[in-house]
Amino acid sequence: MSTENDAAPETQPSAHRDNAREDALNEAQGVAKKDVTAPALGVTGMLRWAWTQLTSMRTALMLLLLLAIAAVPGSIFPQRVQDSFAVRTYIEDNPTLGPILDFFQIFDVYSSVWFSAIYILLFISLIGCIVPRTRKHYQQMVSPPPRTPRRLERLPEYGALELEAAGEATSPEQALSDAASMLKKRRYRVDVRRNGDGTGSVGAEKGYLREIGNIVFHVSLVGVLIFVAAGAMFSYRGQKVMIEDEAFVNALVAYDNFYPGTWFQEENLEPFSIRLDSFERAFDRQLFNGEPNPHYGQALDFTADVTVQDGPEAEPEQTELKVNHPLSLGGGAQIYLVGNGYAPVVTVRDGEGEVAFSGPVITRPDDPVYTSMAVVKAPDASPEQLGFVGLFLPTAHDTGDGLAISADPELGNPELHLNSYAGDLGLDEGVPQNVYVLDTEDLTELNTRETEHGAITLALGETHQLPDGLGSIEFEEVQDYIAIDIHYNPGTTYILIFAMTATAGLIASLFLRRRRAWVTVEANEHGRTLVKYGLLARGEDFRLRDENIALRTQFEKAWPVRPPEENNES
Amino acid sequence: MIAAPLSTHLAPINVQLAEYSELFMLISAFIYTLAFILFTVDTVRSSATIRRVEAELSAEQQRERAQRLVGASAPNDAVAPNDAAPPRASDEDLVDDDLAYVGTTRPFANVAVALTAVAAAAHGFAVVARGLAASRWPTANMFEFLTAAALVVSVVYLAGLIRRDLRFLGVFVLGLVVTMMAGATIGFPTPIGHVQPALQSPWIAIHVTLAVLAMAVFTLTFAMNLLQLLQSRRERVLDGAPKGRFERGLATNQFMRLVPSAFSLESWAYRLNAVGFVFWTLGPMITGAIWANESWGRYWGWDPKEVWTFVIWVVYAGYLHARATRGWTGNRAAWLSIIGFICIIINYTVVNMWFPGLHSYAGLPE
Ligand code: HEM
Question: Could you list the residue ranges that cross the membrane (chain A) (predicted)?
Answer without folding.
Answer: 60-77, 113-131, 215-236, 494-512
